[in-house]
Amino acid sequence: MANVVMGYKQSTFPTKLAAISGIGLLIFIILPFVMGEFQLALVSKLLLFGTLAISLDLVWGFTGILSFAHGIFFTLGGYASAYYLKLNLSAANNNYGGELPDFMVWNGLEVLPWFIAPLKYFPIAFLAMIGVPALFAYIVGYFIFRSKVSGVYITIITLALSSALTTFFISQQAYTGGTNGITDVSKLALFGIEIPAMGLYFIILAYTAFVLVLSWWLTQSNFGLILRSINENENRISFLGYDVAQYKIFIWTLSAAMAGVAGGLFVPLNRFISPVYLAVAFGTQVVIWVAIGGRGTLIGPLLAAMLLGQAQNYAEKVTQDWQLMIGILLLIVVLFIPNGLMSLLPKKFSLANLSKPTPIAPVATTVKN
Known about the structure:
Radius of gyration: 23 Å
Distance between the termini: 33 Å
Number of helices: 14
Strand content: under 5%
Shape: globular
Number of domains: 1
Largest sheet: 3 strands, antiparallel
């Protein structure tokens, strides 16, 4: 259905955007049948990193909150998943032949801690994968945004949180595995059936598509308009009667939940999680993906995360200074393309414009006396 209003045909369904998205999805559906095992695992990981970048784009690109904490949310979800997979590892596969994970035995624990034991069950672990990052984000966000902290101070707080939690997780070796993290976890199985690599790829692809569609729907709604308005002029939106803190807390918490699930899926793919993903370095990488791809574009951060991840994979084989190359690329983007690589596309090919109303020729009208 379509309505004609003021010379525009307003379609309830963005046909062009859906067509481009469908072609992109079809390509990713075909890819695993023409790739090797290593490339399949790499693309799966890059899709998760792209999803993480989308979650940050909701917070930074649309709401104007620069955060280095998304590595925290990713890692919290990852640890919830890792505990589940480690606790369901058969006793025969543990070095000590018991149900207690090896790293706990090494550190003198004799009984499974009460706050970890429930994670042996999939429903609880799945809820923890979403709920722990979301709850942590809600608590932090409540104090930050209700206190009306803004600008660079939020960035400083997220940097401090990242550093503090990295130190904390490393120090709690008996519960977190310390620097090594949780390794050698079991493979993911649902209803007793082990999920193969291709099956896990399609689960990750489905989740990435879900996050992208949900994020697009949110940002195209009135809610998204308010987020953009907060980014442009927070004081004016507050004067209009909107509870700015409530909107910030909601998008911050939702973004954390998205990142947590991405971290949870990362663990069965790579068979480990460690505090390295809590560190400032990883949080900075996520910010770089969004900055280079283009803030407020959604698809830009996704593509940037995947392309830079692939570039990193090849650069590591040539030089140990691959981070320098990424830094130079970021500098070029900030100086010469401040709106990211997506801004180089002609406006008529912009994904954001593909969902806008289509102008139609004006219809002549006659007025009867």
